[in-house]
Structures are given as structure tokens and as C-alpha cells.
Amino acid sequence: MRICVIGAGPAGLLFALLAKRRFPGWDIEVAEQNPPDATFGFGVVFSQGALAFLERDAPDLHAELTARMQAWPMQRIVHRDEAIDIDGNGFSAIARLQLIQFLQELCRAAGVEMQFGRRLEAPPPADLVVGADGLNSVVRGTPGFAPRIEWLSNKFVWYGTRQRFECLTLTFRECAHGAFVAHHYRYSPDMSTFIVECDATTWRRAGLDRMDDAASRGYCERVFAADLGGHALVSNNSTWRQFPLLSNDVWSAGNRVLIGDALRSMHFSIGSGTRLAFEDAIALDRAFGEAGADVPAALAAFERERRPVVEKLFSAASASSYWYEAFPARMRRLDALGLAYDYMTRSGRMSDERLRALAPDFMTKVKKGS
Ligand SMILES: Cc1cc2nc3c(=O)[nH]c(=O)nc-3n(C[C@H](O)[C@H](O)[C@H](O)COP(=O)(O)OP(=O)(O)OC[C@H]3O[C@@H](n4cnc5c(N)ncnc54)[C@H](O)[C@@H]3O)c2cc1C
Questions:
Q1: Is the CB of 8 inside a 6 Å radius of any atom of ligand 1?
Q2: Residue 285 Cβ contacting ligand 1 at under 6 Å
Q3: If you take atom 42 of ligand 1, which residue's CA is the nearest one?
Q4: Fewer beta carbons within 10 Å, N or C terminal of the chain?
Q5: Measuring from atom 37 of ligand 1, which residue has the nearest CA?
Q6: pLDDT at residue 52, rounded to an integer
Q7: How far is it, in rounded angstroms, from Cα 54 to Cα 136?
Q8: 100 lines ligand 1 (CB under 6 A)
Q9: Contacts of 334 (CB under 8 A, 6+ apart)
Q10: d(C-alpha 120, C-alpha 142), whole Å
Q11: Ligand 1 pocket, 138 CB below 6 A?
């Protein structure tokens, strides 16, 4: 059996690792366009318990990650200079590069052949081609797939900073040009992720469409001066983008299958992109565990197991992204507590009863405030 995995992100590396461990005799190679130490962005965040699923399939990875992660038991909303803490809503985070490099180490030890600096423009001959090549997937562009993309209108940019934030925080700030929100959290003892988002009108009014990287960082540092404590924002190929909501009706075509961001995107506000990439990898490996080298049977089993879960989460993530598309109006209408409550119920899946069980202290504040 010869498997070519395109893309050495979380999805591709974990699938290659699990499949090679399960079938040491199979020939599994991973082709990655970038060098092994390159990555976009800074840290990635996982919601509470999100890594538990790794414990069974990759206990060494689970132990390594949990030991290195920054974790907090709550989330914070800052609006009009007031901070509202939401208990029971824990998160943990790690540097994306650290995560990727540890996966590379495990793959090397298992005998996966990894080729870096090798961009594939088309699937190579193999018994199975795994398209783990992210949002701009080449594999997804081959015949048989039916992707749909809806572009959100908000603009966002992914920075880092040396400011240490105590928990996953959403900070809302209004300035002369309009409303901004920052999603920020610490992912190592001395670094934090700092994603800045605004609507397209504000972005143009602020002149951000004409600014270079340094000017754009300077502008955001001024908007969030009260939060950054004098620390600068740091770039890592950081450019303003719009988020694509990508979904796919067809998951596999012939011997080609999509996993991770190549298959669908989940808005970063629900902190699940990497987790889902991992879960896809685990499900695909398990499908081969049952079907052996019968590729069509394994791909059918993979889709049968994963599709319902993915579709449910995709709709929650989309509801969350639409909430952000209208955040300036919500900021103007609601005080800090009202905004925090609106945020917590944004996906439409969180009833007051569930929220009372999950975040009793927060709901006591909401009750007093209403
Ligand atoms: C602003 C922002 C913030 C985010 N924050 C979080 C977060 O906090 N938590 C979280 O879990 N997720 C987050 N995500 C999402 C997360 O980064 C992705 O969901 C996750 O990386 C998906 O993993 P993947 O392996 O499918 O794809 P990727 O990580 O994108 O990996 C794909 C790999 O394929 C390679 N590749 C692409 N094309 C080719 C080719 N033709 N040939 C060879 N190699 C190729 C790429 O170089 C890349 O290494 C965020 C995303 C964004 C944009």
C-alpha cells in the first residue's frame, strides 16, 4: 500500500503517524511545500477537554501537549473598560510551531517519510492520496470535488505579542474610525496570540487597506494601547484577510480524500480548527484499521462516521462567525454583561439552563444585572 499525504499540518502529520504505527509495512510519505520550521500564525487554542480524544489514539502526543499547554479555567469579555469573567468555559493553548515540530518528531521515529520544500501541483500516483493541504488545497481542485465557499465580510489579522494575558479574552474597543475586537490569549510563558478583527467599512475608513505591515501594527497598537501594556504587536506573515466558510459535499473522489481545513473551515472564534483536523486524522486512520487496504470501503466508513459531527459543528461555527459580522451594532447596544451573555448564546445551542450549569457565577451576575 502506498499513501501520499499532501500537507504537513496537524491533519496530515497525525494521519501519517497513526497509519504508519498501525501498518508499519505500508509506504507512507508526506509532501510539504514549506521547510520544517516554518509556520503561519502563533498559538492555537483548544476548548476545555478538546484534547481528551487524543489520549486513546496518540497518548504520547496527548501527554506532551498537555504538559506544555497554557490552560485557564475561564474566559473574559472586556467592553467599555469593564471585564466580565465567564467561569466554566476553560481553554488551553500551545504554539503552533511547537505542536507541528513534535508531530514531525513522532512521524520520523515511526518511519514516515517526510519531504519538506516540495510543493505538489497535482496528486502523484499512489493507492491513496490524502489532501491535508489546508484552505487552498490543490487536491480539492481536482475533478470530482464540489466545494462551496462563502466569504465573510469582516477583516482580520493574526498577530502575536509579548504581553501576557491571563486567559482567553475578547476585547472590544471603539475608536474614531469604528469598532474593533481582539481575540487574545497566552500560548507560552512569554507569548500571546492577538487576532484583530473589524468590519470592512471601519477597515477602509482607518486606511488599513493602504497601510504596510508596520503602519498596520502601529494602528492596532494604538487601538488596543490599554490592553497591550506597552508591548508591541509582532508579525509572522500577518496580513489582513477575510475568512472563507468552506464546505464540501463530496469528501472523496476515487483514491483522493480530503481532511482538515482542505475539507472544511471552522471559524477561528470557536477554537476548533486544529481539533477537527486531529479528529479527521484519527477517524480516517480508524477507518483503515477496520477496512485494511480496501480504500473505497475505508473512505466510505470515514465519511459515514465523521459527516454528522462535522456538519453539526460547521453550523455552530457559522452562527458564531455571523455574530462577529454584526459585532459593532451589538457593542453599541449592549453593556459589558449584556454583550458577554449575547456572546455566550450566539450559536443558538446554549440555553439559560445549560449556561447556569456550565457557568453558575456568570449567570448569577446576569440574573442580578437583568
Ligand atoms: C486567524 C486564525 C486563527 C486560528 N486560531 C485557531 C485556534 O486558536 N485554534 C485552532 O484549533 N485552530 C485555529 N485556527 C485554525 C487552524 O489553524 C487550522 O484549522 C488547522 O491548522 C488545520 O490544520 P490542517 O492540517 O488541516 O491544515 P494546515 O494547518 O493549513 O496545513 C496544511 C499544510 O499543507 C501545506 N500545503 C498546502 N498546499 C500544498 C501543496 N500543494 N503541496 C505541499 N504542501 C502543501 C501547507 O504548507 C500546510 O503546511 C486558526 C486559523 C486562523 C486563520
A1: yes
A2: no
A3: 119
A4: C
A5: 133
A6: 79
A7: 26
A8: no
A9: 79, 342
A10: 12
A11: yes
What was the pLDDT predicted at 15? 98
Query: pTM of the prediction?
Result: 0.93
Q: Which residue type does 55 have?
A: E
The partner residues of 43 in beta bridges, in order of sequence, read 95
Q: Which three cell numbers stand for residue 126?
A: 499512489
Ligand 1: centre distance to CA 23 (Å): 26
* Mean pLDDT in consecutive groups of 10 residues from the start of the chain, 370 residues: 97 98 98 89 80 82 87 93 92 91 95 98 97 97 95 96 94 97 94 96 98 98 98 95 94 98 89 89 97 98 95 86 94 96 89 94 90
